[in-house]
Amino acid sequence: MKKTFLIVCACLLTMLGGRAESKSAGGGFTRDDYAGIIDISLTPTGQENQIGCFTDQGAWMGFTLPGRDKPAGGFCGPFSINGRWWFAKSALSLMAGGKPLPHERADYVPGKIGLCLKADDGCVEEQLLFVDSRTALLHVTNTGRRQLTFSALEPHRALTVRKEGNHLVLGGLPGETLMLTFPPSAELRVAGNNYTATLPPGLGEADIVVSMLLPGDRQEAQRCYANSLLGNYRACENDNLARWNGYLNKVLRPDMPTDYNRVAVKAVTTLVSNWRCLRGGLLHDGIVPSHAVGYFVGCWAWDCWRFSAAMASFFPELAKDNIRVMFDYQQSDGMVIDCIYVDPRENNARDSKPPLACWAVDRVFEATGDTAFVREMYPKLLHYYRWWYRHRDHNANGICEFGSADGTLEAAAWESGMDNAIRFDGAKMLHNGGAAWSIDQESVDLNAYLAYEYTLLGKFAALLGMAFDEPDLRGKVADYFFDDAEGYFFDRRLADGRFVREPGCEGYLPFWTRIATRAQWLKARRLLEDPRKFATYIPFPTIAADNPKYDANGYWRGPIWLDQTYYAIEAFRNYGEPRKADGYTRRVFDRLQGLSGDAPIYENYDTFTGRPLQASHFSWSAAHLLLLYERYGKK
Asked: Which residue of 5, 281, 481, 547 has the lowest C-beta tally within 10 Å?
């Protein structure tokens, strides 16, 4: 009977957790060379303290290292990434004389954190890693003779604690339950909303399992699984090391400068830290823009396409699910909605996002050769492509506009992805019929994206042996949006065809998608290489830097967004100037503040200083840093 129960537990746990890939390193790079990759030090002083944390395997919890001179007696947290609360300042704190033990060293390498706590008769070493999407494993090494007693430091006031064998169940918070699993020899006591867990004297090493249970999880199965991990830290650490070294050896290049390799490792770490497992309304695993900012803990369409494009080379299975998670909500008319959350009531279906889904699928295909995935996605991609021409082509001329489903300009601006772009100043909405509205201008970037989607849909159709007979509008797009007088690509007003002459990043797209002619490139290059406009300290801002409306802190009205910088740099490579492309890449890698140090990667950056702006731990920027790294030195 006991054997049967253990088998059932093991089977249940294969369904409980997320992926736990275990791969051989496959090369000479190791994650241990990248200690201190990102500064995640924070001893929270209240529930409002929220920054990026250590999280892995798609988990919905994370930990921070205690801040300098702000001891916590252990790792801080866990922090609930969805609920945005701390279960405690430290759920596993070691105390001495009523005070948390201070630390003399704190380390973060990709996939693992470490801590050295100072005690009177030696030190206590702690290491923590994630085993799967529900489970973290803490390994404790006691070099002294001190008997170790753990408790929660400043537990959440709503927390409840109950003892179940060698497990402590911490509840009272909506939708999430924390479980701490100690060695069976530990003495556990509960007092109010706290506990003490005392390990036997002379115990040199011990494992403690931290589990976060989500709605629908079976607590009995998780208890069984947690017990099976006790005493098995080394095996889990070896799997963790192999998985992370596997990521890095698929990305890093021996011909790259050390600092650039560090940037690539930081980008990989950022993307994996923003991986969230399926939960609630998220029907597949996905990548969120930033786990450090509450409103970014969801999935956005064109964000997901970018993340999958970057992850395809080192984590293709997650890249696939990150595409599926958005198509789970594809509407019957073909629309892919803007963003989705754990709570579907928060989803935004007022608008879509720029079409880059075929690019993401193609990146996965080129990395894996997986024709089954292409076959799965092709009809959905084609349906989405056709949606644009049915719902966003006001005058049926084969040229599309951004728009919305509710008739608001706000949602239409969101659909462009460039929420407050200068080119939309003064734009108005036009009704196309039903729940379809367009801005009164045709956008060059949208139609360049659609031209690229056309190319890739044709590629997929040929691969699958299917007919593809959509009209080819690629040449028309390049001619239609190019202003010969200014030598640049611009949006056009629907009413009279006038160009919206606000030179901006949307003009990079015909060159990235390769639909522009050589003659158009030679004209536009004069603007792109003008240091007053686009060849700035950090190159290729969202609007020409000499525009009177330029705003250094203006979101899409000035700062550097690295996707747009990537498009412009690739334009030089696409039109036969790889050395210039590399030179602009060096400006990015060498000049963005904190990039090769321990600062997180940010949402956008100041054009003239490289100063970080907006949200930290940002997947969007990390994805394009990886793409820039991948392309550096290539023709």
From this structure: 5
The CA distance from 36 to 107, in Å, is 6
Q: Which residue, of 245, 262, 280, is where some domain finishes?
A: 245
Burial of 586 (0-12, 13-18, 19+ CB in 10 A): middle
| CATH of residue 203 | 2.70.98.50
Strand pairing of 205-213 and 275-276? Answer: unpaired
Residue 155, preceding bond cis, omega within 30 degrees? no
Residue 66 confidence class, pLDDT cut points 50, 70, 90: very high
Could you list the residue range(s) of the whole structural domain that residue 129 is in?
2-245
Are residues 529 and 470 part of one domain? yes
CB 562 within 8 A of CB 620: yes
Indicate the angle between helix axes 578-591 and 619-631, nearest 10 degrees. Answer: 140
Across all residues in the chain, what is the average pLDDT?
95
Which contiguous run of DSSP H or E holds residue 91? strand 88-96
Closest C-alpha to 391, from 465, 319, 325, 336: 336
**In sequence order, what are the residues at sequence separation of 6 or more whose Cβ sits closer than 8 angstroms to the Cβ of residue 188?**
163, 166, 168, 182, 195, 196, 197
Residue in 159, 143, 231, 153 with CA at minimum distance from that of residue 192: 159
At 19, the pLDDT band (50, 70, 90 cuts) reads: very low
Confidence of residue 27 (pLDDT cuts 50, 70, 90): low
Residue with tokens 């275990």: 22
For residue 328, how many other CB atoms are within 10 A of its CB? 15
Burial (Cβ within 10 Å: 0-12, 13-18, ≥19) of residue 288: buried
CB 456 within 8 A of CB 362: yes
Q: Nearest 5°: phi and psi at 141?
A: -120, 120
Same domain, 19 and 154: yes
pLDDT tens profile 261-279: 999 999 999 999 999 999 9
- What is the pairing mode between strands 76-80 and 61-64? antiparallel
The mean per-residue pLDDT over the stretch 12-16 comes to: 37
Give CA 250 to chain center in angstroms. 18
pLDDT for the residue 14:
37
CA distance 371 to 357: 16
* Measured distance CA(469)–CA(459) in Å, rounded: 12
Query: Partners of 334 in the beta sheet?
Result: none
**Rounded distance, CA 5 to CA 393, Å?**
61
Q: Kindly tell me if the per-residue pLDDT of 431 is higher than 60.
A: yes
Q: Are residues 171 and 261 in the same domain?
A: no
